[in-house]
Structures are given as structure tokens and as C-alpha cells.
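It would be a great kindness if you could assist me with a short task in structural biology. Thank you for your consideration; the sequence and its C-alpha cells are set out here.
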Amino acid sequence: MFGEIKASLHDFGVDFDVYFHEDSLHASGAVEHAVQRLRELGHIYEADGATWLRTTEFGDDKDRVVIKSDGEGAYISGDLAYYLNKRERGFERNLIMLGADHHGYVQRLMAMTAAFGDVPYVNLEILIGQLVNLVRDGQAVRMSKRAGTVITLEDLVEAVGVDAARYALVRSSIDSQVDIDLDLLTQRTNDNPVFYVQYAHARTRAVARNAAESGVDDSDFDASTLTHPTESVLLGALADYPRVVRQAAELREPHRVARFLEELAGHYHRWYDSCRVIPLGEAPVEPVHRARLRLNEATSQVLRNGLGLLGVSSPERM
């Protein structure tokens, strides 16, 4: 099963440098090492035949059992060992992704962080992801483990393709429930957000090919010739890209990049409809044509960079 998981992730464009097996923490003695460290810090005590961690000293609503009375590690024991393992390997900031149904687990993990002498929300950062709903024909695709109707990642990729699946998952904030319209994501229309952005990139490449055939190049361009209102808007959007990426990284919100790309694609399409890169008919190539080609290439680069950050392809033709 683990091999199948790795294969599914690889096909989805996700390859981890290290896969860490939780059972190795118990087999290697890492759990006992973590408990001993907390014992030395004075935060472990024995009661009712079990080993407890005084998490109430650090804001938790009750102390937590670490080793149960039968000698087996409780659920949190693996978290203690894993966190300490990462800290001892030199990681200053650890990020953990939890599902919405584990929201109540945040406080005890932060208490664990403080018990180790670290700073909650600094040395440990927890992201809470919401549920994903699939919609087909306007109706939610019902999922039930009991009935065996579970939608897998492979099912999603098979239905809409890797690019559309990745883009659909990343364009919404993890704080909000994600609704994925399977019918919409297979349409080649502007209503499909991934098609809209990818088509903008493909259009920039078509413009570049046509410009080359028409003898237009962007050498020695004069940016002052870009005076059309759509050009000012497009230039402003391009200039905002570094800020968007930086903020997306700082806030752990990659959806900001996807939303930016959709806005940029819209600005580009409107510019494309208003401004010619290639002279009309037999008219000569003018400085404005060279400047517009450079603007076209800049837009192409930013679209390609942004899609690349999201792990989505940038097609040359569509």
C-alpha cells in the first residue's frame, strides 16, 4: 500500500525527499528518548499505572497520557518523538498539516512544544485543511467509507487531469471548504480557471511565434511607448508578482498565487484584444511593436513562473 501511495503522489507531481515511518519512532527508542527528555525537564509524572505529560501547565485543558497502563504508547507519544527528532536534526520551524476534524489537537501540540522549552507557533506551526467536496452535474459526489464509495486522488486525476486537479486544490484557501466542479474542470472555456490561465500563456507563445515570422523583435525597445490603458494595468500587475509570492510564502497561502495568475490572465487577454504586437498589413515595425512584444514576453515569463510554483504545466499551444 505504501508503494501505491508513493506512486500516486509521484503521478500527481509530488515527490518527498524523505518518507518517515511512524513505527520507526517506537522501534528505535525515540519515544522513550522523548519521554526521558520531558522527565528531565520535570513535566512527566506517573498516575494510575500510566505515564502522563503535564500539558495543563502550558495551556492544555487536561494532562495527557503518554504511555498507557498496558505499556503501549498513546497517540501523542509518536508526536512527542517526531517533534523532538526534527528539532534534534536542526529544524527550527516545523510545520504540520492537520484535517479540520483534528482542530482540537492543536492546543495539546502547542503545549508539547512549550514543554520541550520551545516557542509555540514559532518552532511549531500547524495548518488546518478543510474538506474537499466533489461536484458533478450540479450534485455533490457522496463519499462513504462504509459503503465503499471513496474518491481517491487517482479518481480525481483520471476525471480532470493532473494540471486541473492540482490547480483546483490550490486555488482555494485551506481555511475554506473546497468545492471542485468536475464538469467545469474538463471544459475548454474561460469559466474553467486552469484553462483560462494556461490559455493566456499559450497565447503569449503564439504571439511570440507570429512576431518572429513578421520580423518583430524586442531588442532596443522603448517602454515609454506603452501608453494604452490596458498596458498600464498589465505592467502594474506584473510588478506586483514578487509581493504576491512573498506574501503567499509568509502566510502559507499558495492560493494567492493562483488568484493572482487568474487576474493577470484577465489583464493580458484584455490587452491582447486592444493592442497589436504585429503591424497591420504592410505597415512598418514601429518602436511600440517591439515594446509590446517585450511586454508579451514578460507576461509569458510571470505566467510560467507562477504556474511552475503551483506544479502546473505551461503549454506552448492549446
Observations:
- The chain has a mean pLDDT of 92.
- Residues 193-309 form a domain with the Isoleucyl-tRNA Synthetase; Domain 1 fold (CATH 1.10.730.10).
- The radius of gyration is 26 Å.
